[in-house]
Design goal:
The complex is a heterodimer of chains A (168) and B (189). In chain A, the strands form two sheets. Chain A has a four-stranded antiparallel β-sheet, covered by helices on one side. Chain A has four helices and seven strands, in the order E-E-E-E-E-H-H-E-E-H-H. In chain A, helix 1 runs antiparallel to helix 2. Chain A has 168 residues and is of the alpha+beta class. Chain B has 189 residues and is of the alpha+beta class. In chain B, strand 2 and strand 3 form a beta hairpin. The N and C termini of chain B lie far apart (87 Å). The chains are: A alpha+beta (168), B alpha+beta (189). Chains A and B meet through strand 4, strand 5, strand 6, helix 3 and helix 4 of A and strand 3, strand 8 and helix 3 of B.
């Protein structure tokens, strides 16, 4: 059987959502074990909005503080190196690992796609780097489906959006 | 007018478009990167479709819009439909009424993924192992019954996961068999 969809993004930490790329649409699958599908046809996509969220900073702050507290705790066990090692692995290792993964993944973001009938939050794409790579891949396809080489520019948008206001 | 999304930071409709690539929330000053496509002007196109007139005698008109030319018929009820009333679901053409009926009756886009359920059902009960006496045979039966990919599933269906779940359940049934046989023979002696 010919593979109809390419997976763009699988489950993220907090969202049971997956994003697939089809020939002429994006497929958003929601849920685990019982899945529900939403199709966003390239010809219908009006707007894609990308904005940073505070998750990245929040994780850095929480686990940064955790790391400092862990350091203080481990420093208190200087007389007992065995206990210091055991505590260190848990109280320093875990926050350090989470911080490292968070830093490698980069800033967090929210990706929203608007069509004529819905505004859909793509929750599985929660990192800016991943979102940009998805946009890099899909924007030319969406533009092409709407008979263009690239999305609308400010100049193209200005006269059309201002025309009704000028008439009134 | 472009319909911008809500600001997810302050949850208000205060997004203000700066140019074709940027918007800013006037409430919390959070910035958004935009990519706008020509489909934002699509409303104008549908308006022209609605006003399509019938010029020639003998041509069919839409069931709902008497002034619009029929371009298709509904797969289920056979009504003539204009561009505006046509709902395309895959290769099927339906009127809005039949589309809603189909969606409600079949729950069309909701699919139970047995290729995800069965591996979980064969592995997770091991944590409370006595339950495997019920779950393992259930997995064996369901693996056979649900082997085929559901017709309306658009995504690949993992037969490998089902096969692994089947083998795992078979091992569990084997262990239970040995346990019962051992118990019976021990009891007899």
């Amino acid at each position: 059987m010919k593979k109809k969809y390419k997976k763009l993004k699988g489950f993220s930490s907090f969202a049971y959502q997956k994003l697939y790329l089809g020939e002429d649409h994006l497929l958003v699958s929601d849920g685990y074990m019982v899945e529900q599908y939403k199709r966003l046809y390239f010809a219908d996509i009006e707007l894609i909005a990308l904005s940073r969220t505070s998750t990245f900073a929040l994780i850095n702050a929480v686990f940064g503080v955790g790391l400092v507290l862990g350091l203080i705790l481990v420093a208190g066990f200087q007389d007992n190196p065995e206990a210091a090692w055991t505590l260190g692995i848990f109280f320093l290792g875990m926050p350090f690992l989470v911080l490292l993964i968070n830093l490698i993944k980069g800033p967090s973001c929210m990706l929203e796609i608007t069509t004529g009938v819905q505004q859909l939050k793509i929750r599985c794409v929660s990192r800016e780097r991943k979102a940009r790579s998805i946009l890099k891949r899909t924007v030319p396809m969406i533009s092409q489906a709407q008979g263009r080489q690239a999305p609308l520019s400010t100049e193209e948008l200005q006269p059309r959006s201002e025309a009704p206001e000028a008439a009134t | 007018m472009i319909q911008l999304p809500k600001c997810h930071k302050c949850k208000t409709d205060s997004l203000k478009q700066l140019n074709a690539h940027e918007a800013e929330c006037s409430n919390c000053m959070h910035s958004f990167k935009l990519t706008i496509f020509p489909a934002v002007f699509k409303d104008g196109k549908t308006a022209t479709v609605e006003s399509t007139q019938v010029f020639h005698e003998g041509e069919s008109t839409c069931f709902e819009h008497q002034s619009s030319l029929a371009v298709a018929t509904c797969h289920d009820c056979g009504r003539f439909l204009c561009n505006l009333c046509t709902v395309k679901t895959g290769e099927l053409i339906q009127c809005l009424e039949c589309f809603v009926k189909t969606k409600e009756s079949k729950n069309a886009d909701k699919i139970v993924r047995w290729d995800q359920i069965l591996p979980a059902l064969s592995i997770l009960p091991i944590l409370i192992w006595p339950f495997t006496i019920f779950t393992a045979p259930a997995v064996l039966i369901l693996s056979i019954l649900k082997w085929k990919n559901p017709e309306n599933n658009p995504l690949p269906y993992s037969h490998a996961s089902i096969a692994i779940a089947f083998i795992f359940a078979l091992i569990q049934v084997g262990f239970w068999g040995l346990f019962i046989v051992g118990l019976a023979s021990g009891g007899l002696s």
